[in-house]
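Objective 1.3, modelling of assemblies. Example input:
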Amino acid sequence: MSNTLIDGLKERVSQAITINTSVGVILPSSNYSDMMQALFEYMSSRNDHFWVYLAISKPYENIVKQFEYASQMTNIRFIDCVSRAAGITNKDPNCIYIESPSYLEKIIIEIMNIFKEVGDQLQKTLIIDSLTSLSIYNDNALVTEFFTHLINRTRLKDIHTFSLAIEEEMDDYINKIMYLRSNKIIKLRESFI
Amino acid sequence: MTNSESYVYNQNRIGLNENENAKSSCPCITGIDELDQKLGGGLPSGNTVLLVGSSGSGKTTLSMQFLTNGAKIGERGVFFTITEPLFKLTKNLEKFDFYDKKMIESGMVNLIDLRIISERLGLDAEKYTVEDASALLEILKDIADELDVKRLIIDSITALCYRLQTKEMIRDFIFKLGSSLASMNCTTILTSEVPPNEVKYSQYGIEEFIADGIIFLGDVDRKGDLIRTLQVIKMRGTNHSRTKSAMSISSKNGIELTPLLKSRV
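Predicted structure (C-alpha coordinates):
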Protein backbone atom coordinates (compact mmCIF):
# COMPACT_ATOMS: atom_id res chain seq x y z
CA MET A 1 0.00 0.00 0.00
CA SER A 2 1.36 3.41 -0.99
CA ASN A 3 2.28 5.49 2.05
CA THR A 4 1.64 8.60 0.00
CA LEU A 5 -1.96 7.54 -0.55
CA ILE A 6 -2.59 6.79 3.15
CA ASP A 7 -0.76 9.93 4.23
CA GLY A 8 -2.84 11.99 1.81
CA LEU A 9 -6.06 10.55 3.22
CA LYS A 10 -4.89 11.11 6.79
CA GLU A 11 -4.17 14.71 5.97
CA ARG A 12 -7.69 15.19 4.60
CA VAL A 13 -9.23 13.43 7.59
CA SER A 14 -7.18 15.52 9.99
CA GLN A 15 -8.11 18.83 8.40
CA ALA A 16 -11.79 17.97 8.14
CA ILE A 17 -12.19 16.61 11.69
CA THR A 18 -10.36 19.51 13.29
CA ILE A 19 -12.42 22.22 11.64
CA ASN A 20 -15.89 20.74 11.22
CA THR A 21 -18.35 19.28 13.72
CA SER A 22 -19.96 16.98 11.19
CA VAL A 23 -18.02 15.46 8.31
CA GLY A 24 -19.49 13.19 5.64
CA VAL A 25 -17.18 11.03 3.56
CA ILE A 26 -18.43 9.53 0.29
CA LEU A 27 -16.02 7.00 -1.11
CA PRO A 28 -15.92 4.24 -3.72
CA SER A 29 -15.95 0.73 -2.27
CA SER A 30 -12.56 0.03 -3.80
CA ASN A 31 -11.00 2.61 -1.47
CA TYR A 32 -12.84 1.61 1.69
CA SER A 33 -9.87 -0.28 3.15
CA ASP A 34 -7.52 2.64 2.38
CA MET A 35 -9.82 4.98 4.25
CA MET A 36 -10.02 2.53 7.16
CA GLN A 37 -6.25 2.37 7.39
CA ALA A 38 -5.88 6.14 7.21
CA LEU A 39 -8.59 6.59 9.83
CA PHE A 40 -7.17 4.08 12.30
CA GLU A 41 -3.63 5.41 11.90
CA TYR A 42 -4.94 8.90 12.50
CA MET A 43 -7.00 7.85 15.53
CA SER A 44 -4.05 6.03 17.10
CA SER A 45 -1.89 9.14 16.71
CA ARG A 46 -4.30 11.44 18.52
CA ASN A 47 -4.26 11.04 22.27
CA ASP A 48 -6.14 14.27 22.71
CA HIS A 49 -9.27 12.71 21.19
CA PHE A 50 -11.78 10.15 22.42
CA TRP A 51 -13.34 8.06 19.69
CA VAL A 52 -16.48 6.00 19.48
CA TYR A 53 -16.46 3.74 16.46
CA LEU A 54 -19.88 2.56 15.28
CA ALA A 55 -19.21 -0.68 13.38
CA ILE A 56 -22.00 -1.51 10.95
CA SER A 57 -20.05 -2.50 7.85
CA LYS A 58 -18.12 -5.27 9.59
CA PRO A 59 -17.90 -6.89 13.01
CA TYR A 60 -15.58 -5.52 15.70
CA GLU A 61 -13.55 -8.73 15.65
CA ASN A 62 -12.70 -8.26 11.97
CA ILE A 63 -11.66 -4.67 12.59
CA VAL A 64 -9.25 -5.54 15.41
CA LYS A 65 -7.85 -8.41 13.39
CA GLN A 66 -6.93 -5.89 10.71
CA PHE A 67 -5.78 -3.16 13.13
CA GLU A 68 -4.50 -5.04 16.16
CA TYR A 69 -3.31 -1.89 17.89
CA ALA A 70 -6.92 -0.65 18.01
CA SER A 71 -7.77 -3.16 20.75
CA GLN A 72 -4.97 -1.70 22.91
CA MET A 73 -6.00 1.93 22.48
CA THR A 74 -7.49 3.39 25.65
CA ASN A 75 -9.21 6.31 23.92
CA ILE A 76 -11.53 4.34 21.67
CA ARG A 77 -14.72 2.33 22.32
CA PHE A 78 -16.51 0.28 19.73
CA ILE A 79 -20.21 -0.30 19.25
CA ASP A 80 -20.76 -3.37 17.11
CA CYS A 81 -24.19 -3.47 15.47
CA VAL A 82 -23.76 -6.51 13.27
CA SER A 83 -22.08 -9.37 15.17
CA ARG A 84 -25.10 -10.41 17.24
CA ALA A 85 -27.41 -10.24 14.23
CA ALA A 86 -24.95 -12.46 12.37
CA GLY A 87 -24.90 -14.99 15.21
CA ILE A 88 -21.40 -14.06 16.44
CA THR A 89 -21.39 -14.33 20.22
CA ASN A 90 -17.84 -13.17 21.08
CA LYS A 91 -17.43 -10.65 23.87
CA ASP A 92 -14.87 -7.92 24.43
CA PRO A 93 -14.81 -5.34 27.21
CA ASN A 94 -13.84 -2.63 24.72
CA CYS A 95 -16.95 -3.22 22.64
CA ILE A 96 -20.67 -2.87 23.22
CA TYR A 97 -22.71 -5.29 21.16
CA ILE A 98 -26.13 -4.24 19.89
CA GLU A 99 -28.48 -7.14 19.23
CA SER A 100 -29.69 -5.84 15.89
CA PRO A 101 -28.83 -2.93 13.58
CA SER A 102 -32.52 -2.09 13.65
CA TYR A 103 -32.24 -1.08 17.34
CA LEU A 104 -31.42 2.46 16.32
CA GLU A 105 -32.58 4.07 19.55
CA LYS A 106 -30.39 1.69 21.55
CA ILE A 107 -27.43 2.74 19.40
CA ILE A 108 -28.11 6.40 20.26
CA ILE A 109 -28.37 5.57 23.98
CA GLU A 110 -25.06 3.68 23.98
CA ILE A 111 -23.22 6.40 22.04
CA MET A 112 -24.38 9.11 24.40
CA ASN A 113 -23.65 6.98 27.49
CA ILE A 114 -20.05 6.41 26.43
CA PHE A 115 -19.41 10.08 25.73
CA LYS A 116 -21.08 11.06 29.01
CA GLU A 117 -18.20 9.42 30.87
CA VAL A 118 -15.47 11.16 28.84
CA GLY A 119 -13.81 14.25 30.31
CA ASP A 120 -14.06 17.61 28.58
CA GLN A 121 -10.30 17.80 28.06
CA LEU A 122 -10.64 15.29 25.20
CA GLN A 123 -12.15 16.10 21.81
CA LYS A 124 -15.01 13.65 21.37
CA THR A 125 -15.55 12.16 17.93
CA LEU A 126 -17.98 9.59 16.63
CA ILE A 127 -17.11 7.53 13.55
CA ILE A 128 -20.10 6.01 11.72
CA ASP A 129 -19.03 3.13 9.49
CA SER A 130 -21.24 3.40 7.57
CA LEU A 131 -24.58 5.07 6.89
CA THR A 132 -25.04 3.03 3.73
CA SER A 133 -24.57 -0.21 5.70
CA LEU A 134 -27.19 0.95 8.18
CA SER A 135 -29.63 1.39 5.32
CA ILE A 136 -29.23 -2.30 4.43
CA TYR A 137 -31.02 -3.16 7.68
CA ASN A 138 -33.41 -0.21 7.99
CA ASP A 139 -35.78 1.78 5.80
CA ASN A 140 -34.16 4.89 4.40
CA ALA A 141 -36.61 7.22 6.11
CA LEU A 142 -35.70 5.65 9.44
CA VAL A 143 -31.97 6.03 8.78
CA THR A 144 -32.59 9.66 7.89
CA GLU A 145 -34.48 10.23 11.12
CA PHE A 146 -31.79 8.39 13.12
CA PHE A 147 -29.00 10.45 11.58
CA THR A 148 -30.88 13.70 12.16
CA HIS A 149 -31.51 12.86 15.84
CA LEU A 150 -27.93 11.76 16.30
CA ILE A 151 -26.41 14.85 14.73
CA ASN A 152 -28.68 17.12 16.78
CA ARG A 153 -27.73 15.40 20.01
CA THR A 154 -24.00 15.10 19.33
CA ARG A 155 -23.73 18.77 18.28
CA LEU A 156 -25.37 19.80 21.52
CA LYS A 157 -22.65 17.94 23.44
CA ASP A 158 -19.84 19.21 21.23
CA ILE A 159 -19.22 15.73 19.81
CA HIS A 160 -17.84 15.69 16.28
CA THR A 161 -19.11 13.10 13.80
CA PHE A 162 -17.34 11.50 10.87
CA SER A 163 -19.79 9.53 8.74
CA LEU A 164 -18.80 7.20 5.94
CA ALA A 165 -20.97 6.25 2.96
CA ILE A 166 -20.06 3.89 0.13
CA GLU A 167 -20.80 5.56 -3.17
CA GLU A 168 -22.13 2.45 -4.94
CA GLU A 169 -24.60 1.78 -2.10
CA MET A 170 -25.88 5.34 -1.88
CA ASP A 171 -29.32 6.41 -2.95
CA ASP A 172 -31.05 9.79 -2.98
CA TYR A 173 -32.10 9.53 0.66
CA ILE A 174 -28.60 8.96 2.05
CA ASN A 175 -27.11 11.43 -0.39
CA LYS A 176 -29.57 14.12 0.66
CA ILE A 177 -29.20 13.58 4.39
CA MET A 178 -25.40 13.57 4.21
CA TYR A 179 -25.34 16.86 2.37
CA LEU A 180 -27.98 18.40 4.60
CA ARG A 181 -26.51 17.37 7.94
CA SER A 182 -22.77 17.58 7.33
CA ASN A 183 -20.70 20.74 7.60
CA LYS A 184 -18.19 19.29 5.24
CA ILE A 185 -18.36 16.57 2.58
CA ILE A 186 -15.24 14.78 1.49
CA LYS A 187 -15.83 13.03 -1.80
CA LEU A 188 -13.09 10.62 -2.69
CA ARG A 189 -12.58 9.80 -6.32
CA GLU A 190 -10.47 6.98 -7.64
CA SER A 191 -8.90 9.54 -9.94
CA PHE A 192 -7.74 11.52 -6.86
CA ILE A 193 -6.26 8.42 -5.32
CA MET B 1 -59.29 36.75 46.45
CA THR B 2 -55.61 36.81 45.49
CA ASN B 3 -53.71 33.67 44.59
CA SER B 4 -51.88 33.58 47.88
CA GLU B 5 -55.12 34.00 49.82
CA SER B 6 -56.63 31.21 47.78
CA TYR B 7 -53.66 28.99 48.58
CA VAL B 8 -53.98 29.65 52.32
CA TYR B 9 -57.69 29.03 52.16
CA ASN B 10 -57.27 25.69 50.40
CA GLN B 11 -54.45 24.64 52.67
CA ASN B 12 -56.56 25.30 55.75
CA ARG B 13 -59.61 23.73 54.21
CA ILE B 14 -57.93 20.42 53.55
CA GLY B 15 -56.24 20.47 56.94
CA LEU B 16 -52.64 20.32 55.90
CA ASN B 17 -49.91 22.07 57.79
CA GLU B 18 -47.27 24.02 55.89
CA ASN B 19 -44.62 21.26 56.06
CA GLU B 20 -46.87 18.54 54.80
CA ASN B 21 -48.08 20.67 51.94
CA ALA B 22 -44.55 21.62 50.91
CA LYS B 23 -43.52 18.01 51.04
CA SER B 24 -46.40 16.76 48.93
CA SER B 25 -45.75 19.40 46.29
CA CYS B 26 -42.25 18.01 45.63
CA PRO B 27 -42.31 15.40 42.89
CA CYS B 28 -41.29 11.88 43.80
CA ILE B 29 -38.30 11.45 41.52
CA THR B 30 -37.99 8.09 39.82
CA GLY B 31 -34.24 8.54 39.33
CA ILE B 32 -34.67 7.59 35.67
CA ASP B 33 -33.63 10.94 34.19
CA GLU B 34 -35.58 10.82 30.95
CA LEU B 35 -38.73 9.63 32.73
CA ASP B 36 -38.45 12.39 35.32
CA GLN B 37 -38.11 14.90 32.47
CA LYS B 38 -41.23 13.49 30.82
CA LEU B 39 -43.09 13.81 34.11
CA GLY B 40 -41.96 17.35 34.82
CA GLY B 41 -39.68 16.30 37.66
CA GLY B 42 -41.06 12.95 38.80
CA LEU B 43 -44.27 11.24 39.85
CA PRO B 44 -46.51 13.63 41.78
CA SER B 45 -46.07 12.70 45.43
CA GLY B 46 -48.92 10.65 46.82
CA ASN B 47 -50.15 9.57 43.39
CA THR B 48 -51.21 6.02 42.61
CA VAL B 49 -49.82 5.04 39.24
CA LEU B 50 -50.82 2.07 37.12
CA LEU B 51 -47.77 0.66 35.35
CA VAL B 52 -49.18 -1.34 32.47
CA GLY B 53 -47.46 -3.86 30.24
CA SER B 54 -47.38 -7.39 28.96
CA SER B 55 -45.05 -10.08 30.22
CA GLY B 56 -41.40 -9.04 29.92
CA SER B 57 -42.14 -5.40 29.27
CA GLY B 58 -40.05 -4.17 32.23
CA LYS B 59 -42.73 -3.46 34.87
CA THR B 60 -40.88 -5.12 37.73
CA THR B 61 -37.51 -3.66 36.73
CA LEU B 62 -38.89 -0.12 36.51
CA SER B 63 -40.67 -0.55 39.85
CA MET B 64 -37.54 -1.82 41.57
CA GLN B 65 -35.43 0.95 40.10
CA PHE B 66 -37.99 3.43 41.42
CA LEU B 67 -37.71 1.89 44.89
CA THR B 68 -33.92 1.66 45.00
CA ASN B 69 -33.49 5.21 43.67
CA GLY B 70 -35.86 6.35 46.41
CA ALA B 71 -33.81 4.51 49.03
CA LYS B 72 -30.70 6.32 47.81
CA ILE B 73 -32.30 9.65 48.76
CA GLY B 74 -33.58 8.37 52.07
CA GLU B 75 -37.12 7.39 51.07
CA ARG B 76 -38.07 3.99 52.40
CA GLY B 77 -40.02 1.69 50.11
CA VAL B 78 -41.89 -1.59 50.11
CA PHE B 79 -42.44 -4.03 47.27
CA PHE B 80 -45.37 -6.44 47.64
CA THR B 81 -45.09 -9.30 45.21
CA ILE B 82 -47.71 -11.86 44.46
CA THR B 83 -46.36 -13.03 41.12
CA GLU B 84 -42.95 -14.47 41.91
CA PRO B 85 -41.12 -15.81 44.96
CA LEU B 86 -38.66 -13.46 46.67
CA PHE B 87 -35.58 -15.57 45.90
CA LYS B 88 -36.40 -15.38 42.20
CA LEU B 89 -37.07 -11.67 42.40
CA THR B 90 -33.75 -10.93 44.14
CA LYS B 91 -31.86 -13.26 41.81
CA ASN B 92 -33.09 -11.23 38.84
CA LEU B 93 -32.32 -7.97 40.60
CA GLU B 94 -28.73 -8.93 41.32
CA LYS B 95 -27.96 -8.51 37.63
CA PHE B 96 -28.60 -4.78 37.85
CA ASP B 97 -26.06 -2.23 39.05
CA PHE B 98 -28.80 -0.15 40.67
CA TYR B 99 -29.53 -3.00 43.08
CA ASP B 100 -27.65 -2.98 46.35
CA LYS B 101 -28.23 -5.78 48.84
CA LYS B 102 -27.46 -3.37 51.67
CA MET B 103 -30.68 -1.48 50.91
CA ILE B 104 -32.62 -4.62 51.80
CA GLU B 105 -30.51 -5.37 54.86
CA SER B 106 -30.88 -1.82 56.15
CA GLY B 107 -34.65 -1.90 55.66
CA MET B 108 -34.71 0.96 53.16
CA VAL B 109 -36.13 -1.44 50.57
CA ASN B 110 -38.54 -4.09 51.86
CA LEU B 111 -39.59 -7.05 49.77
CA ILE B 112 -42.71 -8.85 50.94
CA ASP B 113 -44.33 -11.94 49.46
CA LEU B 114 -48.09 -11.51 49.76
CA ARG B 115 -48.61 -15.24 49.30
CA ILE B 116 -46.66 -15.92 52.49
CA ILE B 117 -48.80 -13.37 54.32
CA SER B 118 -51.91 -15.06 52.93
CA GLU B 119 -50.67 -18.39 54.21
CA ARG B 120 -49.98 -16.95 57.63
CA LEU B 121 -53.45 -15.47 57.70
CA GLY B 122 -54.80 -18.90 56.82
CA LEU B 123 -56.25 -17.70 53.53
CA ASP B 124 -56.77 -19.90 50.52
CA ALA B 125 -53.81 -18.96 48.28
CA GLU B 126 -55.88 -19.32 45.10
CA LYS B 127 -59.25 -17.90 46.06
CA TYR B 128 -60.02 -14.88 48.21
CA THR B 129 -63.34 -13.99 49.73
CA VAL B 130 -64.31 -10.34 50.28
CA GLU B 131 -63.25 -10.73 53.92
CA ASP B 132 -59.90 -12.26 52.92
CA ALA B 133 -59.22 -9.39 50.56
CA SER B 134 -60.13 -6.82 53.19
CA ALA B 135 -57.90 -8.53 55.76
CA LEU B 136 -55.02 -8.53 53.29
CA LEU B 137 -55.61 -4.88 52.54
CA GLU B 138 -55.51 -4.05 56.25
CA ILE B 139 -52.23 -5.94 56.67
CA LEU B 140 -50.79 -4.19 53.65
CA LYS B 141 -51.74 -0.79 55.06
CA ASP B 142 -50.40 -1.67 58.53
CA ILE B 143 -47.05 -2.72 57.06
CA ALA B 144 -46.78 0.46 55.01
CA ASP B 145 -47.65 2.59 58.06
CA GLU B 146 -45.32 0.73 60.37
CA LEU B 147 -42.40 0.95 58.01
CA ASP B 148 -43.29 4.57 57.24
CA VAL B 149 -42.71 3.99 53.55
CA LYS B 150 -42.77 6.78 51.00
CA ARG B 151 -42.86 4.43 48.01
CA LEU B 152 -45.06 1.38 47.65
CA ILE B 153 -45.31 -1.20 44.87
CA ILE B 154 -47.90 -3.93 44.34
CA ASP B 155 -46.76 -6.41 41.71
CA SER B 156 -49.29 -7.09 40.40
CA ILE B 157 -52.81 -5.78 40.91
CA THR B 158 -53.89 -8.21 38.19
CA ALA B 159 -52.63 -11.27 40.08
CA LEU B 160 -54.24 -9.99 43.25
CA CYS B 161 -57.62 -9.51 41.56
CA TYR B 162 -57.33 -12.88 39.85
CA ARG B 163 -57.87 -14.49 43.25
CA LEU B 164 -61.23 -12.82 43.63
CA GLN B 165 -64.16 -14.76 42.27
CA THR B 166 -66.57 -12.27 40.78
CA LYS B 167 -66.45 -8.96 38.96
CA GLU B 168 -68.34 -7.36 41.82
CA MET B 169 -65.75 -8.56 44.32
CA ILE B 170 -62.97 -7.24 42.13
CA ARG B 171 -64.67 -3.86 41.75
CA ASP B 172 -65.29 -3.64 45.46
CA PHE B 173 -61.71 -4.61 46.29
CA ILE B 174 -60.20 -2.14 43.81
CA PHE B 175 -62.21 0.77 45.16
CA LYS B 176 -61.30 -0.17 48.74
CA LEU B 177 -57.67 -0.39 47.68
CA GLY B 178 -57.97 3.01 46.01
CA SER B 179 -59.28 4.69 49.15
CA SER B 180 -56.70 2.92 51.30
CA LEU B 181 -53.86 4.10 49.09
CA ALA B 182 -55.24 7.62 48.97
CA SER B 183 -55.09 7.80 52.76
CA MET B 184 -51.46 6.69 52.89
CA ASN B 185 -48.64 9.18 52.78
CA CYS B 186 -46.80 7.45 49.93
CA THR B 187 -46.46 7.24 46.16
CA THR B 188 -47.71 3.94 44.78
CA ILE B 189 -47.09 1.91 41.66
CA LEU B 190 -49.58 -0.85 40.85
CA THR B 191 -48.33 -3.06 38.04
CA SER B 192 -50.99 -4.22 35.63
CA GLU B 193 -50.58 -7.18 33.29
CA VAL B 194 -52.19 -7.00 29.87
CA PRO B 195 -51.95 -9.27 26.82
CA PRO B 196 -49.27 -8.28 24.28
CA ASN B 197 -50.19 -5.95 21.39
CA GLU B 198 -53.43 -4.82 22.99
CA VAL B 199 -54.17 -1.22 23.85
CA LYS B 200 -55.84 -1.75 27.20
CA TYR B 201 -54.67 -0.64 30.57
CA SER B 202 -55.98 -3.38 32.79
CA GLN B 203 -57.35 -6.88 32.84
CA TYR B 204 -60.61 -6.00 34.54
CA GLY B 205 -61.22 -2.51 33.16
CA ILE B 206 -61.55 -0.96 36.62
CA GLU B 207 -57.99 -0.62 37.83
CA GLU B 208 -57.37 2.57 35.82
CA PHE B 209 -60.20 4.36 37.59
CA ILE B 210 -58.43 4.39 40.94
CA ALA B 211 -55.16 5.47 39.36
CA ASP B 212 -53.98 9.08 39.18
CA GLY B 213 -51.60 8.12 36.45
CA ILE B 214 -51.05 5.48 33.79
CA ILE B 215 -47.70 4.55 32.29
CA PHE B 216 -47.89 2.11 29.40
CA LEU B 217 -45.01 -0.20 28.48
CA GLY B 218 -45.36 -1.69 25.02
CA ASP B 219 -43.49 -2.91 21.98
CA VAL B 220 -43.20 -1.83 18.39
CA ASP B 221 -42.23 -4.32 15.75
CA ARG B 222 -39.44 -3.20 13.46
CA LYS B 223 -38.74 -5.78 10.78
CA GLY B 224 -39.43 -8.55 13.25
CA ASP B 225 -37.35 -7.04 16.07
CA LEU B 226 -39.28 -5.79 19.07
CA ILE B 227 -38.44 -2.33 20.38
CA ARG B 228 -39.58 -1.67 23.95
CA THR B 229 -41.57 1.52 24.40
CA LEU B 230 -42.82 3.67 27.28
CA GLN B 231 -45.62 6.23 27.16
CA VAL B 232 -47.19 8.29 29.92
CA ILE B 233 -50.91 8.11 29.17
CA LYS B 234 -52.11 10.24 32.04
CA MET B 235 -50.66 11.76 35.18
CA ARG B 236 -52.79 13.96 37.37
CA GLY B 237 -51.02 16.89 38.96
CA THR B 238 -48.29 17.46 36.43
CA ASN B 239 -47.79 18.67 32.89
CA HIS B 240 -46.32 15.58 31.31
CA SER B 241 -45.16 14.53 27.89
CA ARG B 242 -47.36 12.04 26.01
CA THR B 243 -44.80 11.13 23.37
CA LYS B 244 -43.72 7.54 22.96
CA SER B 245 -40.14 6.72 23.95
CA ALA B 246 -37.97 3.77 23.10
CA MET B 247 -36.94 1.99 26.28
CA SER B 248 -33.75 0.10 26.92
CA ILE B 249 -33.03 -2.20 29.85
CA SER B 250 -29.39 -2.86 30.66
CA SER B 251 -27.66 -4.29 33.69
CA LYS B 252 -25.47 -1.20 33.97
CA ASN B 253 -28.08 1.54 33.77
CA GLY B 254 -31.39 -0.27 34.26
CA ILE B 255 -34.16 1.55 32.40
CA GLU B 256 -33.15 4.23 29.88
CA LEU B 257 -35.35 6.15 27.48
CA THR B 258 -34.81 7.99 24.23
CA PRO B 259 -37.32 9.38 21.72
CA LEU B 260 -38.76 6.67 19.49
CA LEU B 261 -37.90 7.04 15.82
CA LYS B 262 -41.22 7.15 14.07
CA SER B 263 -40.58 6.71 10.37
CA ARG B 264 -42.36 3.63 9.03
CA VAL B 265 -42.03 1.50 12.14
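Residues 130-147 of chain B form the longest helix (18 residues).
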